[in-house]
# Entry
Amino acid sequence: MARVPLYRQAETEMLRRIRTGDWPVGQRLGNEFELAEEFGVSQGTMRRALMTLEAQGLLARKPGRGTIVSEPAAKPDEAAAPDLPGFDRLALPDGAAPKLEVFRSRSGSQRVDGDLAELLGEARALVIERMLKQGGIRFALDQIILPESLLNACDGEAAVDLPDLLLAHGVQATGIEDRLTASMCSMGESVALEVDRNSALLVLTRVARDASGRVLAQQMLKMAEGDVGYTVGLKG
# Structure
């Protein structure tokens, strides 16, 4: 599995900052040289990352004002789209959400059957397998499965969170269902995550649906970090 290109790492981190509000709408960013130094990449790499986010409407580059964080205009069919949860529901001991990054990613088409085929509504699927890191440490194995009729190719490095990853490929999710379970680490998983054999894993299984209820993707995140939790806000 190839390592994530530097420009993609910069894009992912900038997307995270915008999504979490670290970079609020209207904030003026440094110039290309300053940002390149901050992110530890070349000016050319940073320019490529900035151009990608500008094309997505998340940044605006204005003469005399520099680069400004902007709020993209919602498309008519996206105007009422809900604010879906990403990995911000995960919480470290201090209450902060882990800052995850895609370390490795690969994808391919394969046949599925049984419950998974029934969930997806078809027997062919696009399977994305990723390694996610938190603070430079291997945090989780991530598997995302989509109906092949929906997407036959996907850049698993386009975004970390599932709703953002789907949206980056023109697919709008309107609902997310989460389920938490625990499992014991297999030999292969222990090697990949660099943990002891039979370590406990926290497993987050997530299903994304569109407005009609059709399943867009199933995600299974297997986390080796023993201190991670899951938060849910309740209103009376």
Summary: The two ends are 47 Å apart (CA to CA). The helical segments are 6-20, 32-39, 43-55, 114-120, 162-168, 187-193. Residues 6-20 form the longest helix (15 residues). The CA atoms of residues 144 and 219 lie 4 Å apart.
